[in-house]
TrEMBL record:
Composed of three domains: the N-terminal N domain, which is responsible for interactions with the ribosome, the central G domain, which binds GTP, and the C-terminal M domain, which binds the RNA and the signal sequence of the RNC. This is Signal recognition particle protein. It holds the Pfam family SRP_SPB. NCBIfam families: ffh. InterPro entries: AAA+_ATPase, P-loop_NTPase, Signal_recog_part_SRP54_M_sf, Signal_recog_particl_SRP54_hlx, Signal_recog_particle_SRP54_M, SRP, SRP54, SRP54_GTPase_dom. It comes from Alkaliphilus peptidifermentans DSM 18978. It is found in: Cytoplasm. GO terms for molecular function: 7S RNA binding; GTP binding; GTPase activity.
Amino acid sequence: LAEKLQNTLHKLKGKGKVNEKDVNDAMREVKMALLEADVNFKVVKDFVNKVKERAIGAEVLESLTPGQQIIKIVNDELTILMGTTQSKINFSSKPPTVIMLVGLQGAGKTTTGGKLAKLIKKQGKRPLLIAADIYRPAAIKQLQVVGGQVDVPVFSMGDKQNPVDIAKAGLEHAISNGNDVIIVDTAGRLHIDDELMGELQSIKSNIKPHEILLVVDSMTGQDAVNVAEHFNEKLGIDGVILTKLDGDTRGGAALSVRAVTNKPIKFAALGEKLDDIEIFHPDRMASRILGMGDVLSLIEKAQANFDEKKAKELENKIKTQSFTFDDFLDQLQQMKNMGPISQLLEMIPGAGKQLKGLEVNEKELVHIQAIIQSMTKQERQNPSLLNGSRRKRIAAGSGTSVQQVNRLLKQFEQTRKMMKQFADMDKGVKKGGKFK
Ligand code: GDP
Ligand code: MG
């Protein structure tokens, strides 16, 4: 599908203003992408209409085609829809902060409880996990294991007590033990049911949570909408945690859930391990849903951070293939302003795969800079001068090893080659030829 989208984009190259036909063409693809990502149909419809309105007649930014411009608008709107800012946990000024995890059975509440406890502990707090799921066999044991793994105490009273009483007693225990955050792991059901809702409401009114977080399995796609709507209506949630994003889901649930509840998605869980959680990034999710890599973030970041003139110069260099180590250094500098390199490389469609093995990390960057700075002017302009003894000198001068110097030279060659490919591709398009 991403390919289809690309084709549409290329067809649209070279126009000044977005017209209705551009929009209709592009939006058909967008609609498909959204539905394929399992976004709720009604949400798709509303969304598409909104974007159409905004897109028709929009000025096309100089560096984009109308098609790209539309997709940029789509991406912007998606990001806005999912929350433009990252929202974290609101800690109470009067501890303990009470967090209640709710959701269907198997959504990932217990696991997420452990993950959150770990995160919160890392922030210097003293969390307590409370085992209030008395129904699922071995649920208490599971939480105890998880708690043990992250070295966070677990409060439990077995499965003979009422969950409301457990939650209340847990809160008191936290107060008398100086725990400043409690995370209550509640029971779920396979389906929404009134009895469960009643229990959760009762827990809520007894321990007055600062955060009721709905844990949603991102693989459940369309169903997520009903679940979120229902929990929000009956219980009033403060935010959502989306789990199992490590699966092959495109994450449409995020969009649907956000749209129907209007509550922020606070965290994304990306695996079974207790480290596999991160703050939710609406922009990344938008691109994931659109299924086109982080192309647009790249476009945007490039627009925001690249010095226009330098970009032009670079373009010329790529075209004339006179890209040197000085330029490479320049690029690294600019990329550094844009965020982690690895992320950036992943964003480049096609390039991501080719560059996977390169593994440029931030620390290496410092080395790379040192290496280039240890080269003479001639060497930077003409890397073929770099024989064995020169490499040794550079390694010594930059505090690196000859292997590191060799690796960089190889990376540089690969980058050059890739740039040549991009340049050729661009020529192909300009001539009206198909790009392959
Ligand atoms: P609960 O019933 O809501 O408490 O759900 P659990 O925490 O017991 O999780 C149900 C299953 O989903 C377990 O096997 C977890 O290991 C798994 N799980 C939870 N979160 C994630 C996640 O982010 N990714 C993956 N792949 N599995 C997860
Ligand atoms: Mg559980």
